[in-house]
Arc family DNA-binding protein
Amino acid sequence: MYPSDQAQKLVIRLPDDVKVFIAEQAKRNGSSQNSEVIRAIRNRMERVAGAQSSGR
């Protein structure tokens, strides 16, 4: 990861159930909620890239 002062900032609104899920995952993984959101987005990016490369 890189310093947060070099990262782009984005404010988002989350449904309560999504916020609770992110908080629970962060606690379970010993990470920040921000890290959990980034992990989820990166996982999605990998799935999309894999689907595109396989011609789906």
